[in-house]
Amino acid sequence: MRRSERIVRLTQTLLEQPYRLLSLTEMAEKLGSAKSSLSEDLAIIRDVLLKEGTGSLETQAGAAGGVRYIPGIPSRQMTDFVAEMCRLLADPDRILPGGYLYISDILGRPDVLDRAGRIFAHVFSGAGAEYVLTVETKGIPLAVSTARYLHVPTVVVRRDHRVTEGSAVSINYVSGSRRIQTMSLSRRSLPEHSKVLIIDDFMKAGGTAKAMTDMMKEFKAEVVGVGVFMSTSEPVPKLLDDYVALTVLSQVDELTREIHVVPGNFQLARKENSDG
Amino acid sequence: MRRSERIVRLTQTLLEQPYRLLSLTEMAEKLGSAKSSLSEDLAIIRDVLLKEGTGSLETQAGAAGGVRYIPGIPSRQMTDFVAEMCRLLADPDRILPGGYLYISDILGRPDVLDRAGRIFAHVFSGAGAEYVLTVETKGIPLAVSTARYLHVPTVVVRRDHRVTEGSAVSINYVSGSRRIQTMSLSRRSLPEHSKVLIIDDFMKAGGTAKAMTDMMKEFKAEVVGVGVFMSTSEPVPKLLDDYVALTVLSQVDELTREIHVVPGNFQLARKENSDG
User: Fold this and answer.
1) pLDDT at res. A162
2) Mutation for testing the B interface, residue in A5, A8, A37 having most B CBs under 10 Å
3) Which residue, A203, B7, B24, B61, could crosslink A231 as a Cys pair with Cβ 3.0–4.6 Å?
């Protein structure tokens, strides 16, 4: 097989399986090539990813060794994407009765989901999340997209307890609209002592995210991060102080039809790696 | 830039944006290479995709011309995946009180979502879907994954009418459990005369899928396909006769703890292309 063909196959195999450790021995066999050629190919792919800022390849030595693709995103692409989101979100046609903002269309777009998921995966890449947790409904696509780039399962907390999920833990909490709400999570959906990353579409007072955090105590799980697509500047403080927001809604005025949306703290948030 | 580097960048650009038409002129500029070299690179990528059965490149000539990546999946990979799903689903530990089957864990796994989404995108690749439609909650991850490979937005029908989505169309229907249920969809979430592909996790009598189809009439939309992860062999006939199922549940016995799950009709379903 020619090098260029091998490189297409390798690039495809790696990109389609983020974070998955791929055995060098198996790959060499599958491609019918020497491990040394494979290493050269991987070096080329690694160089391009690093140069572009779109990720990195992590190599593990030894018998069980292999290589995995860690997705990244260039800082410039993050800021451009978030700026574009702020612009879209500030469209006065999005104002709904009661001062709500219509954002379901944006959170259904495949390019937005892909980019936002990639940003969260990048921001939380050092956090060691084993699951992405969200609550139905609007946060699910974002959670799935993030989980895809982290190569971990998505777990969905329900607003009601469905018979089709077996025994569950239920908790009550007070939502942003000051109503008492219930959320429940099937016992078997999350092993005890898991590390979870919470992803949601929107955070106002933080009641829902706080409730998910409380719920995690029932599962002896550790919350390693909280990421939201949009938070609001008010109220301060929120029930949760450590979270990452892509955008911040500072004003919606039903009368003047003015909306202000600014970039969130996603660029300050990255703690472990700083090559982004 | 060396050919091998160019090929990595091209492969990445194409694979990360299924179905998106990418301009040859822009790509040549970005890579700093002649269009003729680019065409040679694309030919190499096309050959590998075809040889592997993992997709194809579609070239459009002319000033607005370009190239797009159409994801595919080899027949063998489809049957292996579905066989593996049948095996997993038949685990007696999945039986819940009432004869329900616990499948949320499977539908949260990133590899399952990716593969199932890819299969649906492949099966319905000729259908011209402009949106993927699902109903909350369990079908959403599958719908998002399919929509990613078709590069179209996901639209989620709600079980209740939420204040944050504006005016909506609501309909009542009878679900598989014979209860009267409501579903509603925000007016602005779908333009009239759209072509939609319905994706859901589970179909028994077909009441929910039929209701979504009825709902689409209110939006003057055309349903170009229905795909479910699992259907049941009973009842026959269902309220909907044209659907694609990856797996079919033929028996759950709470007493003997026997479950039978067999592959569905996904391989007969593909009408337009037959290169898979």
Assistant:
1) 59
2) A8
3) A203
A235 prior amide bond cis, ω within 30: yes
Question: Does B31 contact chain A (CB < 8 Å)?
Answer: no
Span A164-175, pLDDT tens digits: 688 899 999 987
CB contact under 8 A, A110 and B152: yes
Predicted ipTM of the assembly: 0.94
pTM for the predicted model, two decimal places: 0.95
What is d(CA A137, CA B2) in angstroms, rounded to the nearest whole number?
46
- Are A158 and A253 in contact, with CB atoms under 8 Å apart? no
Q: At what angle do helices B110-123 and B140-150 cross, to 10 degrees?
A: 50
CB-based contact, B191 to chain A, within 8 Å: no
Q: What is the pLDDT of residues A201-240, one digit of tens each?
A: 999 999 999 999 999 999 999 999 999 999 999 999 999 9
Interchain proximity B108–A155, CB inside 8 Å: yes
pLDDT lower than 50: segments of chain A:
272-276
What is the Cα–Cα distance from A94 to A80, expressed in whole angstroms? Answer: 21
Whether B178 has its CB under 8 Å from any CB of chain A: the answer is no
Considering only CA atoms, which of B185, B180, B188, B179 is closest in space to residue B198?
Answer: B185
